[in-house]
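Hi, here's the filled form for the chain we discussed.

Project: internal
Contact: R.S.
Residues: 100
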Amino acid sequence: MTHCQKCGTQYDNEDVYCRKCGDKLPSGCFIATACYGIESEEVNIFRHYGDNTLLKYKIGRKFVNFYYNTSPPIADFISNKPLIKKCVRVGLYPIKEMVK
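And the returned structure, exactly as it came back:
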């Protein structure tokens, strides 16, 4: 379970919209979404890479499955911690540049 960034309501990873406020919920790139925001260029880069590269290969699908199972609580933890978000953005930057 993770929480809506707008109203804080808990939601399941399968939900697309928050049941309380109706806000669109992050899909797939949980950690990048927590750091950059749902409509950011960075999230689109990571989502495109996952959809168009990782999901083509068995090992990529295993990684995506692992990520979907482990990343929501991490994203939930960092979502309201600006300093941690900044540190994660620094760590994601080289990955983003490689997959762009």
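Let me know if anything looks off before we file it.
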